[in-house]
Amino acid sequence: MRHRCVGDLMTSAVVWVRPDTPFKDVAKLLAEHDITALPVLDEEDRPLGVVSEADLLRWQAGQPDPGGRSSGVERTPRFTASGLMSSPAVVAQAEWSVVEAARAMERHGVKRLPVVDEAGRLVGLLSRSDLVRVFLRRDQAICEEITHDVLDGTLCLAPTDVDVSVVDGRVTLRGTVEHGGTIAVVVRLCRAVDGVIDVQERLQCRTDASPAA
């Protein structure tokens, strides 16, 4: 079994800016490339932070109202990426699993992660929409991975023993295995396959004894 990692899902062609990039240039790049955020890199291409549409809007909300009404927020004008960005940058490694990346996003409350190499230099960008792609795997691809990698390759079960059907990421297993203890193992491994949303087992066993370790 091979799980998709951050390096498989990230965008490699990343649009980025330097800390001294002016406000208008940041806004222009976001609009031209139809993206919502830009990593801010130092001179060695290491992420310092991320500047997003939300950061620009937050800055704008802090400006004086043209009609004379106070925004209730006093802010010093910030006209460059370094003044606008959210920092420090929360980064990921290309070899991270999807679960590690999702937990990092949740823990830090961010929507995207700059991906760095061993030296801390930017190599890609991972967004929440990239993670969602895991759940868009074709049912046929999921079925083939369970049949060949899990049942045959890992558990050495014959294709005639267990029938696998997948509909919208939901897996149903029907058939017979030798030992009762095998059923829980089959279900657990199937749940770990990328793209699987749920597993329903309709399995029977020939004996209740669990196989030897």
Notes on the structure:
- The chain is α/β, with parallel strands linked by helices.
- The protein has 2 domains: 130 residues, CBS-domain (Roll), CATH 3.10.580.10; 71 residues, 2-Layer Sandwich (Histidine-containing Protein, Chain: A), CATH 3.30.1340.
- Helix content is 33%, strand content 23%.
- The strands form 3 sheets. Strands 3-4-5 form a 3-stranded mixed β-sheet.
- β3, α5 and β4 form a beta-alpha-beta unit.
- It starts with 5 loop residues before the first helix and ends in a 6-residue tail after the last strand.
Short key terms for the protein model shown above:
213 residues, alpha/beta, CBS-domain, Histidine-containing Protein, Chain: A, three-stranded mixed sheet, 8 helices, 8 strands, 33% helix, 23% strand
Gist of the model:
The protein contains 8 helices and 8 strands; from the N terminus they run H-H-E-E-H-H-E-H-E-E-H-H-E-E-H-E.
The number of strands is 8
What is the total number of structural domains? 2
Low-confidence parts lasting 5 or more residues at pLDDT below 50? 73-77
Task: Compute the number of helices.
Answer: 8
Radius of gyration computed on alpha carbons: 24 Å
> Distance N terminus to C terminus?
21 Å
CATH class of the largest domain: Alpha Beta
Helix/sheet category = alpha/beta
Biggest β-sheet: strands ordered side by side in the sheet: 3-4-5
**Approximate strand percentage:** 15-25%
The fold-level CATH name of the largest domain is CBS-domain
Helix content: 25-40%
